[in-house]
């Protein structure tokens, strides 16, 4: 009997959060280990379906770096990175789009459909969802052109709103075009941040392969915008965490309610963050 009581207590704890976020949009960047472990893949699809079924509006933006890397090697090319970004020549861009917009996107859509909800896959090209421009990257202190790699300069959320109004869960591959129709590879964190801003999302959640923001070895459950900027300036937030935190800070500046960096290696990480008092990972808030 106690196990049933425990289950009911868990449901009771989640009720205020379901009520708070009912009808609200939550953008989730899906990537890292959560996309490679079969148990986590299935868990994520069910969790997204559950969010939809309790009246929350999830929007998924996904990565796919390991899958791209595997096909690049299979086709006899070399995986090359600079400044943390994939060097993307014309042939590699074709591979990137094929993997992201084709294989990975449709697998995620299928998994969510199988979990009981309707998902629809698209990329930044669809409905001119995302417009991009080319970027240079800092490669050991020198700015370098790494090919067809861009950043998002505009988001037109109309196609997402159409899907949401028709009760579909949008699943977005981070590929976009510039004003001349040239295709660019977009960092998934950047894409999810810009989409969350355009939708004025209640939350932006970045699934990562780390616990969250750690200072002096201690995981911080909540960090304010001011504190995060100070930690970056002092070098206490460094490496690959900097662009993730900056993505969150930019989203907060442009109207997103709260942002979260959470450990996607933990089963049901998204639900734990949204529906429990303790949460998981690090919440970054304005202030």
List the helices and strands and how they pair.
Elements: H1 2-21, E1 25-30, H2 38-53, E2 57-62, H3 65-74, E3 81-82, E4 85-86, H4 90-114, E5 119-123, E6 130-139, E7 142-155, H5 158-165, E8 169-173, E9 175-177, E10 183-186, H6 188-198, E11 203-208, E12 214-215, E13 218-219, E14 222-224, H7 225-233, H8 241-253, E15 258-263, H9 269-275, E16 282-285
Parallel strand pairs: 1-2, 1-11, 2-8, 5-8, 7-10, 11-15, 14-16
Antiparallel strand pairs: 3-4, 6-7, 9-10, 12-13, 15-16
Helix pairs in contact: 2-4, 3-4, 6-8
Q: What do these coordinates show?
A:
- The protein is α/β, with parallel strands linked by helices.
- It has an 8-stranded mixed β-sheet with strand order 5-8-2-1-11-15-16-14, with helices on both faces. It has a 4-stranded mixed β-sheet with strand order 6-7-10-9. Strands 3-4 form a two-stranded antiparallel sheet.
- The model has no long low-confidence stretch (mean pLDDT 92).
What would you say about this model in short?
The chain has 287 residues and is an alpha/beta fold. Helix content is 41%, strand content 28%. It has nine helices and 16 strands.
List keywords for this structure.
287 residues, alpha/beta, Carbamate kinase, eight-stranded mixed beta sheet, four-stranded mixed beta sheet, 9 helices, 16 strands, 41% helix, 28% strand
